[in-house]
Design goal:
This protein is α/β, with parallel strands linked by helices and about 350 residues long. It is built from 13 helices and nine strands.
């Protein structure tokens, strides 16, 4: 087995390692290796995207969910969760405000809520594209049929974010109820890609039962699937779930993985997630310095932001708010990057 620095050099050169090599890179993590990875990831990212950090206006459309994932605060069996559902007109108001604030991508995210049928979503998508033809629309609404994905794509959706959560089937079963399957999640991701979406996947860092072996599989999955975007963030427990007593994931490990992902796929769109900022006041900045190039401020109505509580202590006000875009731009500028007004499509592969 090569030394860790040799593995980093190989990864930057070939964009690929074996499972055993990824695991070795994780097992030998140190401050020195983190700094080396961060410097290389920064150089690679700047070669593709320069100093640009793209913004997505996030609209959390529903806290209803038919699923019962063991880690999620809006799981259906959580009787303490505050439920809400935005109307199509509510969502349009958010997008109009976002457009005026300079956002050119809108992310409609929610639990798997059957109320948001194709019959309701397709007219909404067509209206958004009619009012803002230069925008991109990302959906993050979970597992649906291939026919539904196709109808939503035809109505104007450009991107779809479906976090795979884990690339290991056994680990998936430990995090989800029996009615959800890893195989179906993988099938959905393949179908989205075949239809023509810019597809985003993603996983939690430090989820219960996750080891370096599982994390190596995550990296290999991203390497082979080649998504347009990959959203990762540290696991944070929720007090009303079976995993309430589990420790939170690590910001430093998440940043280490962001750097590795940047070297795996230089044109990958990598968010610096809200979870990073929840665990560390400078978490978002650390993520950007490690290779991330996307942030997603919240455009949802203020009165519902604290109801979309996937994990405890989620940041819901202040600079997580899209209305404070200037504050966020200043923070990004303070570390040498620029918040840009752009759709933020993935760059063509080298």
């Amino acid at each position: 087995m090569s030394e860790p620095l040799e593995l980093i050099e190989k990864l930057e050169r070939t964009h690929s390692l074996s499972l055993a090599e990824y695991e070795a890179l994780l097992r030998n993590r140190s401050e020195a290796l983190s700094a080396e990875l961060r410097a290389r990831a920064d150089r690679v990212r700047k070669a593709v995207y320069g100093n640009a950090v793209f913004t997505r206006g996030l609209v959390e459309i529903s806290s209803f969910c038919k699923n019962d994932c063991l880690y999620c605060g809006i799981r259906r069996s959580n009787g303490q969760a505050e439920r809400y559902r935005l109307t199509p007109e509510d969502i349009l108001v958010c997008c109009r405000e976002g457009w005026e604030l300079g956002f050119r991508t809108f992310v409609l995210q929610g639990g798997e809520d059957p109320w948001f049928s194709d019959e309701r979503l397709c007219p909404l998508l067509r209206q958004i594209k009619a009012e803002f033809p230069a925008c991109a629309v990302t959906l993050s609404l979970g597992e649906r049929s291939r026919e539904s994905y196709q109808r939503l794509f035809d109505a104007g959706a450009d991107r779809y974010l479906l976090r795979h959560e884990t690339a290991d089937p056994d680990h998936y079963r430990a995090l989800h109820p029996p009615e959800l399957s890893w195989e179906h999640r993988m099938e959905c991701l393949r179908e989205l890609k075949e239809i023509g979406y810019q597809v985003g996947c993603g996983f939690m860092v430090g989820s219960p039962g996750q080891t370096e072996k599982e994390l190596a599989k995550e990296l290999k999955f991203v390497e082979t699937f080649r998504p347009a975007m990959c959203g990762i963030g540290p696991f944070i427990p929720h007090k009303d779930t079976p995993f309430r007593n589990q420790p939170a994931g690590s910001v430093d490990l998440t940043c280490y993985l962001l750097s590795i992902l940047r070297l795996i796929q230089p044109n990958l769109l990598l968010p610096a997630t809200t979870a990073l900022g929840t665990l560390d006041p400078l978490g978002r900045e650390k993520g950007i310095l490690a290779g991330a190039n996307v942030v997603m401020p919240n455009l949802s109505p203020v009165e519902v932001r604290k109801k979309y509580m996937l994990y405890d202590n989620k940041i819901c006000t202040g600079e997580e708010s899209a209305q404070c875009r200037g504050c966020l731009a200043a923070r990004v500028a303070s570390i040498g990057y620029e918040l840009v007004t752009d759709r933020g499509d993935p760059a063509s592969p080298a």
